[in-house]
Each structure stands twice: as C-alpha cells, then as structure tokens.
Specification:
Blueprint: H1 10-22, H2 26-38, H3 45-65
Helix pairs in contact: 1-2, 1-3
Length: 66
C-alpha cells in the first residue's frame, strides 16, 4: 500500500488485524498490531477485544502444553 502512495490509516490497520485473527493468523495479527502502535495508531475497541481474547486463549493453551 505504502509503496503506491496510500499509507494505511487507523481503520485500515484494524480491519486487517481483525481479518488475520479471524483467519487464525494470530502471530501476523500481533506483529501488525505492534507495527501499528509503533507508527502512532491505536486499536479500536473491537480489535482490542479480539487481541485480548486471543492472548487469553494462547495463555490457556500454554498451561496445558507445559
């Protein structure tokens, strides 16, 4: 996107992150979330909820794998 002169906006990041989470690409979603925050953007309420839920699920799964 940026290469073509169209920098992402807050809405763009949130939409892509939600899509990644919904497609079970949690690692990519988290990396994009960090990149988004580094660039001065913030997640909206629904995206933040998805991320928090995913972190809880991952922590829950880790307790069984340990």
């Amino acid at each position: 996107m940026e290469e073509r002169g169209c920098p992402p906006k807050n809405c763009t990041y949130n939409t892509i992150i939600r899509g990644l989470v919904n497609n079970n690409e949690k690692s990519r979603a988290m990396k994009l979330n960090w990149k988004m925050v580094e660039r001065g953007f913030s997640t909206d309420a629904s995206t933040e909820e998805l991320i928090v839920d995913q972190k809880r699920i991952m922590a829950f799964i880790d307790t069984f794998e340990s």
